[in-house]
């Protein structure tokens, strides 16, 4: 299979400006090719709406429209600061005593 590169100024370029990559040089047959993440996926039924999707972006849009959250993509949990636990002086002392007791029993 012949692979072409876009070099419109090359003397051997075809009418579309493409040249066989072996002619241009600088390319090896085993060089890395770009990794493309496709939007296409196997037909999948959306659990909230029941619709079938073959597009990842449409599946995600349907998820948001249904008021659901895609697990692993929720940003809110990382942006909200953790609320401190309010303890009274008595609760704090009891908590420390219990922890020291647990550590001594090990």
Blueprint of the fold:
Blueprint: E1 4-6, E2 18-20, H1 21-24, E3 40-45, E4 52-55, H2 56-65, H3 76-79, H4 89-104
Antiparallel strand pairs: 1-2, 3-4
Provide tags for this entry.
two-stranded antiparallel ribbon; alpha+beta
Taking pLDDT < 50 over at least 5 consecutive residues as the criterion, the unreliable ranges are none
Average pLDDT, rounded to a whole number, is 84
Shape: elongated
Quote the distance from N terminus to C terminus. 69 Å
Order of helices and strands: EEHEEHHH
Q: Quick one: biggest sheet?
A: 2 strands, antiparallel
Task: Provide a concise account of the structure shown.
This protein has 106 residues and is α+β, with helices and mostly antiparallel strands. It has 4 helices and 4 strands; from the N terminus they run E-E-H-E-E-H-H-H.
What does this protein structure show overall?
The chain is of the alpha+beta class. The protein has a domain at 4-27 and 37-65. It contains four helices and four strands, in the order ββαββααα. It has helices spanning 21-24, 56-65, 76-79, 89-104; strands at residues 4-6, 18-20, 40-45, 52-55. A two-stranded antiparallel ribbon has the order 1-2. Strand 3 (40-45) and strand 4 (52-55) form a beta hairpin. The longest helix has 16 residues, at 89-104. The termini are far apart. The relative contact order is 0.07.
């Amino acid at each position: 299979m012949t692979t072409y590169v876009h070099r419109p100024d090359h003397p051997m370029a075809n009418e579309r400006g493409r040249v066989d990559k072996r002619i241009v040089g600088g390319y090896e047959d085993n060089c890395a090719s770009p990794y493309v993440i496709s939007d296409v996926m196997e037909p999948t039924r959306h659990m909230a709406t029941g619709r079938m999707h073959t597009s990842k972006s449409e599946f995600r849009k349907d998820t948001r429209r249904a008021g659901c959250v895609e697990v692993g993509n929720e940003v809110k949990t990382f942006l909200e600061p953790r609320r401190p636990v309010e303890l009274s002086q008595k609760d704090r002392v009891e908590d420390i005593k219990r922890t020291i007791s647990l550590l001594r029993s090990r």
